[in-house]
Amino acid sequence: MKLAANAWWSVVPALAFALPGYAQDENAVRGMAATCANCHTVQSREAGGIPPIVANDGNTLLQQLKDFKSGARPATVMHQLARGFTDAQLEQLAAYFARTSRGDTRR
């Protein structure tokens, strides 16, 4: 998958959220999660070949994110994005998507 030249501007906000210490409250985690929604749907259907984010317990999603970050899982863009987050932020994202997948929006 090749991104259009103007699509890279949608990635820039993700880098801002990757700053250390940013994801300390739920609003910050929601902000990080919103960057994921630029490309992924959070519903159970696929959007144009990009898999949806459905995290039943969060562990599978967290492992996938860590695999992208380490390079163990090949990708076109995700490996670059995942490297911009700390492991703690990836854990927060996985937990957030696990909660929202269950319909629980509370912390």
In short:
It is built from five helices and no strands. By secondary structure, it is an all-alpha fold. The protein has a single domain, classed as Cytochrome c-like domain (Cytochrome Bc1 Complex, Chain D, domain 2, Orthogonal Bundle).
Count every beta strand, where a strand is a DSSP E run of 2 or more residues: 0
- In helices, the fraction of residues equals 40-55%
CATH architecture: Orthogonal Bundle
The fourth-level CATH homologous superfamily is: Cytochrome c-like domain
Poorly predicted sequence stretches spanning 5 or more consecutive residues: 5-20
Helix and strand element order: HHHHH
- Structural class label: mainly alpha
Counting DSSP H or I runs of 4 or more residues, the number of helices is: 5
Describe the structure.
- This protein is an all-alpha fold.
- It has a single domain, classed as Orthogonal Bundle (Cytochrome Bc1 Complex, Chain D, domain 2), CATH 1.10.760.
- Helices cover 46% and strands 0% of the residues.
- It contains five helices and no strands.
- The protein has helices spanning 12-17, 26-36, 59-70, 78-82, 87-101.
- Helix 3 (59-70) packs antiparallel against helix 5.
- The radius of gyration is 13 Å and the shape is globular.
